[in-house]
Amino acid sequence: MSEPSPSAAPLLAGLLDLLADDAPAEALGAVTSQARAAGVPAAELAEVERAAATALRIRGALRQHRRRELQLAALFDTAGDLAASRDLDDVLKAIVRRARMLLGTDTAYLTLPDEEAGDTYMRVTDGSVSVVFQRLRLELGEGLGGLVAQTASPYATPDYRTDERFRHTRNINAGVLDEGLVAILGVPLLLGSSRGGTGKVIGVLFAADRAARVFSPDEVALLCSLAAHAAIAIDTARALDDTRTALAELAGANAELAEANAAVRAHSAAMQRAEEAHDRLTDLVLRGGDVKDVALSVAGLLDSPLTIHDPGGRLLAAVRPDGTGFAADSMDAGWLAGTAEESRHGARAVHRDRRWICAVLAGHELLASLVLHRPGRLDDSDRRLYERAAVVTGLLLLLRRTVAETENRIRGELISDLLSDPERDPAGLAERGRRLGIDLDRPHVLLVAEAAAREKLGGAAMRYLFGGDIHGVSAEHAGTVVLLTDGGGTSPGDAARAAATQLGHLVQAPVTVAGTGPARGARELAAAYAEAARCLRAMRVLGREGEGACVDELGFLGVVLGNAKDVDGFVTAVLGPLLRYDERRGTQLVRTLRAYFGAGGSLIRAKDELHVHVNTVVQRLDRIQVLLGRDWNEPDRALELQLALRLHLLSGGRDR
User: Maximum distance among all alpha carbons in the chain?
Assistant: First the structure.
């Protein structure tokens, strides 16, 4: 007897053990070689190869997830270090040292403006070896740093020496060359101006490498978040220096000493309260608090109701100071977006329509808007506290989004595999879903979305699921974005319309969404996707871009038009004589024909529908016969006419 063929099961189980032990990529890849060497049959060998590829993707996603968690933990540690610092030199050194550590660059440095000289000088460096570079001074607008300070925007270059976007000078080029720098990232340290209403640049924070390097958007956002904390810490240190100076000057003024001391104590108490509130909020984030927890803490500190909204205006949290929820007054999404942009541009909270609005940012990206429902003014200390709360909220949302993006990417691969080949292993797909927290056996609503701005739609779908009460997963598939949601008790049509509206706000362009369901299991979900794709094509043919709908709402036309091309041409070819006659004469032949077919060919019911005499119906049908021909009521021709009438109605055509 021949020996049985080796099984792939132990090798697949070994892959899971390697993933659990965080084995290197080479060990995962070697499993395929082991299978070949063991003589595993071809069919099972292919399964081992697919499993090994999937394991490598999962390992990469998990390592990226851990790396981002370490970066965010370091950022929170930085916030604590800066909040505890009182000496300005210590603050600046801590900022630059932590910037170099967070981005893993060869050097980091910070420049500050010299108000008297009217230029910018190198204040602190970390990792620098060049004395020429450490003593460098820049005029406004010179080099990368000058452009950052002038525009209050971050700039990055993979190779500074060949980048023509910046104004190169002999002085700056000599310093950069002596230090050996190639790739440079610079972000502004911004504080709001109490009078001008625009952000004030108080310095520029840099991270640089001595080799070519492209800084990712995540690295830019990370350095911008550190710069936001750094600006607050510098402002705090300077305020404390001002307080100590004021105390020294007031010591000799005996007549006014009591009043001055009271003012200083009040100022110091306000500063301490703001710092304690910042530490309290940061600790809340570190302990795993969510957006509602931050909103409750801020509402309690400022004794006013607070709401938090996503960039599209959708409500994320609404709390009173006592912890109870409340129904906030409706706000126009456009008004809120405009006010948040004003806050973002000025780097300050703004007061509009009896509310205080503060933009929540990651770099220059708007993550959310805080709305304090308080008609009265905020004193300087409360306003500073409110603005610090926006910084902490930004850190929380950035952390949650990073985790959500990683999880959604892994889950999205499951959805792509399910839609590509649901028959391959339905049980295996269901088991993968359970491990990822997706129960495919539960009923789901499936949405398929498309937009001209395709490159923005995937990220917008993830933010749509991440930012609200919708629970689900998204994946890009066949040029569209697929969203698998629990439906929240809404119909597929309502879910599609809600998604089209919100995704349109996020993409800033029309988004068309088709919905189907509920469906469960790999086969049903794959069939639901095919149905939604047909519905999407039908909506495109009908000119309903930017809307949401489901197949049931389109009726049999959703099936007929799934691959149709020219609706207007078809309607004109079939109903053209009647449409032109109605347009010229002001008659109602199209409406009469629809009523006649709708009444099943009954003249009596048709005249009741039209509210005219039966003789009028007969006369109109005679005119229709003259215009369309004697065979207009034959079965084949009648079906064509009824289809054209239905298309004319669905595509927005009006009868006289």
Answer: 112
Over residues 449-488, the pLDDT tens digits come to 999 888 888 888 887 876 556 677 888 888 889 888 876 6
Tens of pLDDT along 343-364?
A: 888 888 888 888 898 888 877 7
Cα-based distances in Å from 286 to 81, 209, 297, 358:
14, 31, 14, 22
Distance of CA 51 to the CA centre of its chain: 31
Task: Give the Cα separation of 390 and 370 in Å (integer).
Answer: 7
Cα separation, 211 vs 228, in Å, equals: 27
- State the virtual CA torsion across 224, 225, 228, 232 in degrees, nearest 10: -150
Q: pTM, whole model, 2 decimals?
A: 0.42
CB-based contacts of 656, cutoff 8 Å, min separation 6: 582, 583, 586, 587, 588, 590, 591
Contact 43, 70 (CB under 8 A): no
Which helix (DSSP H) or strand (DSSP E) does residue 448 occupy?
Answer: strand 444-451
Distance CA 242, CA 260 (A): 13
Contacts (Cβ under 8 Å, ≥6 apart) of 296: 319, 323
Pairing of strands 511-519, 548-550: parallel
3-class secondary structure, 226: helix
Tokens (6 digits) for 118: 């009217």
Burial of 356 (0-12, 13-18, 19+ CB in 10 A): buried
